[in-house]
Design brief:
By secondary structure, this protein is of the alpha/beta class. It contains twelve helices and nine strands. It has a seven-stranded mixed β-sheet with strand order 4-9-8-3-7-5-6, sandwiched between helices. It has a two-stranded antiparallel ribbon with strand order 1-2. The longest helix has 23 residues. The radius of gyration is 18 Å and the shape is globular.
Length: 288
Amino acid sequence: MLVRRLLALPVALVLALAPAAACSRADPVPLDAPTTGAAGSATEPAPRVLAVSVDGLRPDVVERLGAEGTPVLHRLLAEGAGTLNARTARERTETLPGHTTEVTGRRVDAGRGGHGVTWNEHRGGTTVQRAAGGPVRSVLSEVRRSGGGSALFVGKQKLSLLRRSWPRAVDRFVLASDPRRVVARARRDLARHERAFTFVHLASPDTAGHDHGFGSAAYRDAVREADRLVGRLVARVESTPRLASSVRVVLTSDHGGTGTRHDDARLLVNHTVPFVVWGPGVSADALY
């Protein structure tokens, strides 16, 4: 298996979205309307990214469930470029530090060039920039700089930190505790808007892990449900020609877990995560 760090995630997304200035920031567009170049001829649609973060997803459980238990994840791995042996930031293997690393590409420790988000609870009013002690760029700000729009669909209030930190870069923010509602809102937004970057956070595996244990029957059921929800997002992409030709899916997680916790960064199981990229033009060696 390839070993890749999530610190490369924002860089990969920015490169994929570099030509996205043609994307509207908010206006609905016909689903199959072609984009046109200077001469008015039809061109390829601007690339878009659908990033899915499955909170607390242990890759070894995905492997044990196999293609029967997690058919969508296994399909993405088989058809795209991915690994079940990637690493998240290991300084703090928790939800808020991990997701801040996902969108910034920075380590956690502010004193060593990190983003400085060392807490894991909701703190209204603070920002990543305050935590870092200076400016911090993210995939959100880079998409904004290229002229594209972004939307965040999350299942935990603490992730509102991302919207507060880059408010001009986030066109839509949806918070819902039910992951099925998170996915339903994201599916509608994908179909109605030409956003360059859509971020979807699925919280249920982490919730089940804390309540019943990471690796328990309830946790495995939550992973199966997350797989089905990812399948609904993929189905929306595949059933809409314009999305099918332009959307790349990036799927990963913020941390793993053992027992009912995941805060011991010394344990490999807590900072080993899946990482997969799938979509048009993505080959199996794309992670290189």
